[in-house]
Amino acid sequence: MTWVAWRLQRTETLIAAGILALIACLLVPTGIQMANAYHHDGLASCVMVNVSPSCAQAVGDFTSHYGYLANLVTLFTLVPGIFGVLLAAPFVLDLENGTYRLAWTQSITRRRWLTGKLGIAIPGALAAALVLTLLVTWWRTPFTSLNGRLQNQSFDFDGTVVLGYTLFALGLAAAVGAVWRKAVPALIVAFGGYFAARILVDAWLRQHLITPNAITWAANKLGPNLSHAWVLSEGPSTKAGAWIGPHTGGGVGGTIHIAVPRCISVGPQITRCHNPGGSYIHAVYFAASRFWELQAIETALFGGVALVLLAFAAWWTHERLA
């Protein structure tokens, strides 16, 4: 049964391998070029809080030169969904074509058939996700050193979340396909569901998964270095941290702009502003050290939902199909 399942899965597996090969052809040459530029320009010394104007200029030049590639690589966030629905396709096609009935009449139990089908798809999807993670994490190393790992562009590829994303797409495709038994529309709906879930988590849910950090400091003193943190909001406040004026969210890394008049640069990645009224600055943020905490929770979220969907697909197939 395992050999038959592999025979039916190998085309989709080879397509996934081809996608990874194309990604590697793009990332490896440009990644080597970026790494050489990063070390040649001495940018490793530009990640400190206080840096020279020339260092800030070098970081700006590096970002402007390779930023378009970073934006292009961001599109790879769709690839885990492609892997998931692609490797779920043989399972759904078997249900659509009714070929599972032949297997069930050849002394192969439904449970064994399900184990063979999903037992090949799941490891293949996770292996593809792992290779993608290693490729993109290596490629983004210079940007990660400069901006940290809490940016969406880094967070969505670093750590373990890609495994959860891929497994979620696979489970969603299998569940929809088990009920619908129409491969093409089921896989399209599953990929759309994956895309919608990723947008929801990236844009809103992630910042609510754990309680953020908060800090208040005197406006006439240098504030903390939050260059690698995910700053949710920052602005003038009372000593107790209550907002007393306009404040903005700074995002992850990047320059923080606050609606107060006087700002000073304290590094290539961050600007700190002082309130001329003599009060305080309050910031709500996720510290860079909380990266793995967020990774674990988000991976568990997507992975847990994926396991529920896979269990549902297996139950529906086992109990409801004739």
Description of the molecule:
- This protein has 322 residues and is α+β, with helices and mostly antiparallel strands.
- It has 10 helices and 6 strands.
- It is 62% helix and 11% strand.
- A 4-stranded antiparallel β-sheet has the order 1-6-2-3, with no helix packed on it.
- A hairpin with a 2-residue loop joins β4 and β5.
- α8 (161-180) runs antiparallel to α9.
- The chain is elongated.
- Mean pLDDT is 88; it is low at 252-271.
List keywords for this structure.
two-stranded antiparallel sheet; 11% strand; 6 strands; 322 residues; 2 domains; 4-stranded antiparallel β-sheet; alpha+beta; elongated
Task: Outline the secondary-structure elements.
Layout: H1 2-40, H2 53-74, H3 79-97, H4 100-104, H5 110-139, H6 141-147, H7 152-155, H8 161-180, H9 183-205, E1 213-218, E2 230-237, E3 251-252, E4 262-267, E5 270-274, E6 280-286, H10 291-320
Helix pairs in contact: 1-3, 1-5, 3-5, 3-8, 3-9, 5-8, 8-9, 8-10
The major pleated sheet works out as: 4 strands, antiparallel
According to DSSP, the number of beta strands is: 6
Low-pLDDT parts are 252-271
> How many domains comprise the coordinates?
2
Helix content: 55-70%
Label the overall shape: elongated
Structural class: alpha+beta
How many DSSP H or I helices?
Answer: 10
Question: What is the alpha-carbon Rg in Å?
Answer: 24 Å
Mean pLDDT across all amino acids: 88
The H/E string reads HHHHHHHHHEEEEEEH
Instruction: State the end-to-end CA separation.
Output: 20 Å
Q: What percent strand?
A: 5-15%
Strand order of the largest sheet: 1-6-2-3
